[in-house]
Structures are given as C-alpha cells and as structure tokens.
Design a protein that fits this description.
It contains eleven helices and no strands.
C-alpha cells in the first residue's frame, strides 16, 4: 500500500486568522526596516500571499497596514508594565522592564519606527497610538505606587521616567546593544528610585509614596543596594558644601 502523503491538507484561514497572519508578517518587516522601506509586495511575499489579498484586508494600503501593525505592537507594549501588585516595587519593575526590553531587543533597529512613527508613515493617528503607550505605561507605574490621584509633581516624575526608559532603549540600540540587558534593566530601576527620592525631598505626596515603597524593600534588594552605593557619595559631597 502507498504510504500516506506527508503534505498537510490545505486549510482556508478565517478572516481574523488571515488578518493576524498579515499583521505578523508586517510587524516582522517593520521590526527591522523603516516603514518607507517596506512595500506591500514585501508583506505579501513574507506572508506567502498575493498583493491583491493584502489590499483586500487593508484597502488603505501600506499606511493602513502600518497603523494596524503599530496598534498591535502598542497593545503588546502596554501589557509590559502590568504586574501583580505584591512584593517589592523594584522587583516588580525589574520583571516589567525585562518584558519591555525583550520587545526592544526582538524588534531591533525597527523599534524607532514602531514607537516614533518616523518617515512618511507618521500621522496624527500613529502619534496618538505611541502617546497612548507612554500614558498607559505611566498609569501602570502609578498603580504600582498605589497612587490613585497623583499630584502634578509625582505625575511629572513618572512620565519623565517613562520617557527616559524609551530614550535609553533607543540609545541602547544605537550603541550596539551595550551594556548587557540586565545591566540596563537594573540601571533603569535605580533611575526610578533615584527620581522618587529626589522628588520626595520637595513633594509631600511623593515622600509618603517613598516611605510606603521602602517599607516593602529589603536590605539586600535593589533599593538597599542602591542606598549603600549612594550614601557614601552623598556624604562626601555634603562635606564639601
């Protein structure tokens, strides 16, 4: 008897499955190339379909496909800072940053195009999507800090840190992915602790938040290690004043 064929039977994809497939192909291309350098033919080839089929799902052409891919990437990034609200803040932040930086690493040079629009693909809609990611991340940090109604100083500090995380990620890519990701992650955690502490010196609400945050930290945790490194530096500087 003839052996059964090893070729799998053809299965027609549903509308949602096909759309997901096309978005996946587009994201893979946009991850390593600027939008202006990716054509619909490239997406069709990567997905193993025809150009007309791509147009059937995205009649607005490359711009519509790019915005949909950006929305998909934004949804993934927004989930990075979601974390169970238990344990030390620095430990939660480390896990969230591991996810965020893994996304940056996987998307490589295309991270700038995905987050900052770039080239001719940037529109008010893409800018709004990117801004939504930043605001969502900031709101997640405020949840971690257990602050329901942040004052202007605390909100400014948190949004400044989110901007610093994004900027550091882009610089990290530009610097050939140096230092190693764990080093970058720990530095960003220290950065938030330092910003919180500096803001607490002149803002009562932040001071209360810092007191609550430090109550969950241990001497051997990230905040304790940072304190032992910083105190001698600050003490020496104080003697010079």
């Amino acid at each position: 008897m003839a052996s059964p064929s090893a070729t799998p039977a053809y299965r027609r994809l549903s509308v949602e499955e096909r759309r997901t497939q096309l978005l996946g192909a587009a994201l893979s291309l946009f991850a390593h190339r600027a939008p202006k350098d990716v054509s619909l033919d490239d997406v069709a080839e990567a997905a193993g379909v025809s150009r007309p089929l791509v147009y059937r799902y995205f009649p607005g052409g490359k711009q519509q496909l790019y915005e949909a891919a950006l929305r998909s990437a934004a949804d993934e990034l927004e989930l990075c800072f979601a974390e169970v609200q238990s344990g030390p803040l620095t430990r939660r932040l480390a896990r969230a940053l591991d996810r965020y930086l893994a996304f940056v690493d996987q998307h490589d040079a295309g991270f700038s195009a995905l987050l900052q629009g770039g080239s001719v693909a940037e529109t008010s809609r893409t800018t709004a999507i990117v801004d939504e990611v930043r605001r969502a991340a900031a709101e997640q940090i405020l949840v971690h800090l257990q602050v329901a109604d942040p004052g202007p100083r605390l909100r400014l500090m948190v949004r400044t840190w989110i901007a610093a995380v994004e900027a550091a990620s882009l610089i990290w890519l530009d610097e050939d992915k140096q230092p190693a990701l764990p080093v970058l992650r720990d530095w960003l955690v220290d950065h938030l602790v330092a910003l919180l502490t500096a803001t607490a010196a002149t803002d009562e609400q932040t001071a209360r938040v810092v007191k609550s945050v430090l109550a969950l930290e241990s001497a051997e945790g990230a905040a304790g290690v940072l304190a032992r490194r910083v105190i001698p530096v600050v003490s020496e500087a104080a003697h010079l004043l």
